[in-house]
TrEMBL record:
Originating species: Arabidopsis thaliana x Arabidopsis arenosa
InterPro entries xrefs: UDP_glucos_trans, UDP_glycos_trans_CS
Name of the protein described by the UniProt record: Glycosyltransferase
Family, similarity comment: Belongs to the UDP-glycosyltransferase family.
EC number: 2.4.1.-
GO molecular function: coniferyl-alcohol glucosyltransferase activity
One Pfam assignment: UDPGT
Keywords for this protein: Glycosyltransferase, Transferase
Length: 457
């Protein structure tokens, strides 16, 4: 019987990229005959163009379908997690009918952490094996499932008295809004629901690998620690699921990088949806100018209230004037810097020999892409679990310096100092060495399959 997998990704490139890579992995390493990937999106044409032509080429074994979602009437206030969970809830009937129509019937189902309600749908459809792909760290999975294992009272008590969640067998997670967890009741409730649904899956795949998160993965394997919280549901590190750089890709940024010295350029990007306020955007511009370093900066129009707002902003376009940048900035930096509007070929930039540092919002995909290309980082988290990722890369892994975002606007002097420390100083050299070591472990992990070979048969 044909082995067919149905994979579903919630909106956002940060979810689409690893789900697509997992699909390829199942075809190439796990004997799948066919994989159908469903991408839930509020903007099909944009998603298509971002995924890139290599993935859109016809392959009868690897089919990509879009599930369009109209968010115009939707309340898009609240955290990104609640927004995306709500969107996935709205998409459930369409997910169900799309999966139901598949031929041959899929035997394996995978959905990312934001769409765990679809596990029940897969069960109703009689799909044998249902999985969750965690597109972020094992540590975040630990946070989510542990939170769900506590009743609300215990959770609130732990958060407000200690200011952190003490997860068995791995690092505690500081909860920045611990003073008043009740204010975030909707977000906490969604997280607890997700954590509870995760353990209804037959298995959980995480975009990580042993050397990256040894302790946390060890805790999941330990029945006395997170193994107990998972109630026997196996956790498989399957990472790094990272889109490989496209050889020979033509792009103005890459042409420009070709002309720069080795490891001399700082790449600055806040992911697929991150935006800064007007004041912060200006401060960053001045900061970059102050470093005197070469840079590539993916610039988005400022957003005042919600740093993730541009994820759903359809008004953005590539021709919008850059009049929100400081007067004369583009002119003054034209010999050392390149400003790219909205979107750049990130994998190819990070893989380029001229790129020497990455100022990143620490979305998990960006972190992994930096590691697989051996590029040290300046960690500048904005929202979601990015602060946890920033803490991991700067603390345990020592491959980044973390900007303190708690004090409001990050001043140009601080930005310049951080960039210089990573690019020029001894501690930066140490980080570069560490990240190149980690890169080797990522390559080793790529050549291994962590899911037992007989698992799907
Ligand atoms: N990305 C890109 N070009 C850009 C911005 C983002 O190719 O200008 C890709 C990036 O390489 C990564 C994904 O979009 O694969 C963003 O995922 P991440 O988890 O880093 O952040 P998110 O966008 O989910 O916040």
């Amino acid at each position: 019987m044909e082995l067919h997998g149905a994979l579903v990704a919630s909106p956002g490139m940060g979810h689409a990229v690893p789900i697509l890579e997992l699909g390829k992995h199942l075809l190439n390493h796990h004997g799948f005959d066919r994989v159908t990937v469903f991408l839930v999106t509020d903007d099909v044409s944009r998603s298509k163009s971002l995924i890139g032509k290599t993935l859109m080429e016809e392959d009868p074994k690897f089919v990509i379908r879009f599930i369009p979602l109209d968010v115009s009437g939707q309340d898009l206030s609240g955290s990104l997690l609640t927004k995306l969970a709500e969107m996935m809830r709205k998409a459930l009937p369409e997910i169900k009918s799309s999966v139901m129509e598949l031929e041959p019937r899929p035997r394996v189902f995978v959905v990312d952490l934001l769409g765990t309600e679809a596990l029940e749908v897969a069960k109703e459809l009689g799909i044998m094996r249902k999985h969750v792909l965690v597109t972020t760290s094992a540590w975040f999975l630990a946070f989510t499932v542990y939170m769900a294992s506590l009743d609300k009272q215990t959770l609130f008590k732990q958060l407000s008295s200690i200011g952190a969640l003490l997860i068995p067998g791995c690092s505690p997670v500081k909860f920045e809004r611990a003073q008043d967890p009740r204010k975030y009741i909707r977000e906490l409730a969604e997280s607890q629901r997700i954590g509870a649904e995760v353990i209804t899956a037959d298995g959980v795949f995480v975009n990580t690998w042993h050397s990256l998160e040894q302790v946390t993965i060890g805790s999941f394997l330990d029945p006395e620690n997170l193994g107990r919280v998972m109630r026997g549901v196996p956790v498989y590190p399957v990472g790094p699921l990272v889109r490989p750089a496209e050889p020979g890709l033509k792009h103005g940024v890459l042409d420009w990088l070709d002309l720069q010295p080795k490891e001399s350029v700082v790449y600055v990007s806040f992911g697929s949806g991150g935006a800064l306020t007007f004041e912060q955007t200006n401060e960053l511009a001045y900061g970059l100018e102050l470093t005197g370093h070469r840079f590539v900066w993916v610039v988005r129009p400022p957003a005042e209230d919600d740093p993730s707002a541009s994820m759903f902003d359809k008004t953005k376009n590539e021709t919008e004037p850059l009049d929100f940048l400081p007067n004369g900035f583009l002119d003054r930096t034209k010999d050392i810097g390149l400003v790219v509007r909205t979107w750049a070929p990130q994998e190819e930039i990070l893989a380029h020999k001229s790129t020497g540092g990455f100022v990143t919002h620490c979305g998990w995909n960006s972190v992994l892409e930096s590691i697989v290309n051996g590029v040290p980082m300046v960690a500048w988290p904005l929202y979601s679990e990015q602060k946890m990722n920033a803490r991991m890369v700067s603390g345990e892994l020592k491959i980044a310096l973390q900007i303190n975002v708690a004090d409001g606007i990050v001043k140009k002097e601080v930005i310049a100092e951080m960039v210089k420390r990573v690019m020029d100083e001894e501690e930066g050299k140490e980080m570069r060495k560490n990240v190149k070591e980690l890169k080797k472990t990522a390559e080793e992990a790529l050549n291994m399959t962590h899911i037992p070979s007989a698992y799907f048969t």
